[in-house]
Amino acid sequence: MRTERIKRVFFFLLLFLTLPVGASDGALANLRQTSKAFADIAHSVSPSVVFVQVESKSGGAQVGAPSSPFGGEFPFGEDFLKHFFGEGFRDIPHPSPHQGERAIGQGSGFAFAAKDGLLADKTYLLTNNHVVENAEKIRVKLEDGRELDAKVTGRDPQSDVAVIEIPVSGIPALPLADSSKLEVGEWVVAIGNPFGLSHTLTVGVVSATGRTSLGINDYEDFIQTDAAINPGNSGGPLVNLEGEVVGMNTAIFSRSGGYMGVGFAIPSNLLKVIADQLIDKGEVTRGFLGVVIQQLTPDLADSLGIDVAEGILIAQVNQDSPAERAGLRAGDVVVLYDGKPATDVGSFRNQVSLTPPGASKSLTVLRNGERKTLTVTIGELGRKGLVADHTRSAEEIGLTVQALTPRLAEQLDTQVGEGVVVTDVESGSVAAMAGIEPGAVILEVDRTKVSSPAEFHRAIAQAGKGRGILLLLRQDDMQRFVALKW
User: Fold this and answer.
1) 268 lies in the same domain as 294
2) What are the backbone angles phi and psi of residue 434, rounded to the nearest 5°?
């Protein structure tokens, strides 16, 4: 009996001693498999990644003017750089070309499409617009050492996407994945040429998706990743474990000019729509709705007497626009566009812009507590939508207004249709310096009564040049005239 007990104790002791070894072997095997997966990605993706070198005139840059960490001059202005790099961004090492000297910039790119056939052999490469926008000469270096001259097929500054082409075939095109299926926490791999170090691979995860309103591009829907992205990675691919492109590396958040764990990539679904148009037409055509929108906040929702947590508030409907023809009104809250939730301003703007002009889409809005579904025929965003005209605007004086709802009118002791309520005043603006505050009701513009945001904006636009604008407003049970001059 005692012998059997000793045998059992010895057996369990032996089992206990061997468990860590087995567990360790299993963990090492998993690590080896993961390592092999990354090596396979490098092997399959690297032949499609290129080093892009751009030569341009300095454009009269001042001696000592800072250069972009992605090559060339800063594409987004000093305010953007101060936000992302801090006040010390001027300390980033940079070349200082004199007037007339040549400036050299660098970035990355990758093959994503090809055109074959007699006299038509060419490969299309995706890169960032800010890499090539000022280029007079573009030189592309392949992994096998070949160097080729490239030319721009098309650029889209608003999304920071560009397509360039090289007169050669046989470079494997990387497949574009469906970026809408990308999940936070997934492994991703960035490949590019940081600091000119050809075909550098870094690994990380998807930190977030759908990043908008960063102020980097006009149209944003960024993937955020902690895969190391540094100067020179711009335009390179961000791929999943299958070697499919989920995004194109575009920007970094940094206070040093280098990697700090926050990088941004343009998602592949947006890349495909833009790139296809650039190849077909050399430019991008965007959908146009004709509204001024703002994010629905809890305070605005409470003031409007609605209980939805997310939506897009229509602050203004432009005259003779697709929105006006569809019956949209200022004060409507868009909750669905084409059957998909409208959750934030950036995403909604992207959805509309990517809709082909002439297409009919459904809009579900909340109006006076009731849901209504409208059908809108999307227009085309033309030059008027891209370039500001010479009329005055509410943005110029720093005001945001909305229509008076019954609940707001009751709170402000006024009547629906008697003016518009100020919802926001930009700090340091003409309106702020005149003492106008949120909650004020604007009754007249230049002695003309206004009863809706559309009337208010028209009155502001029609105000004479060379003189001020006279507003009649009511606040705290008192009416007063305010003269805006600038």
Assistant:
1) no
2) -85, 0
Contact (CB, 8 A) for 111 and 124: yes
- How does pLDDT run across 103-126, given as a tens digit for each residue? 788 899 999 987 765 556 889 999
207 C-beta neighbours (distance < 10 Å), count: 18
| Residue 383 one-letter amino acid | R
Q: Tell me, what's the pLDDT at 465? A: 52
Are the C-beta atoms of residues 282 and 153 closer than 8 Å to each other?
A: yes
> Which of the residues 48, 68, 108, 130 is marked catalytic?
130
- Among the three residues 262, 282, 302, which one is the final residue of a domain in this structure? 282
In a domain? residue 6: no
Low-confidence stretches of the chain (pLDDT < 50) are 6, 9-19, 59-99, 383-391, 466
Would you call 108 a catalytic residue per the annotation? Answer: no
In a domain, 3, yes or no: no
Q: Could you say which of 156, 160, 221, 332 is catalytic?
A: 160
Q: Kind of pairing, strands 187-192 and 200-211?
A: antiparallel
Would residue 380 count as lying in a domain?
yes
Give ∠ CA 456-460-462 in degrees, rounded to 5. Answer: 115
* Full domain range(s) for residue 60: 24-282
Say which of 58, 234, 254, 347 is annotated catalytic: 234
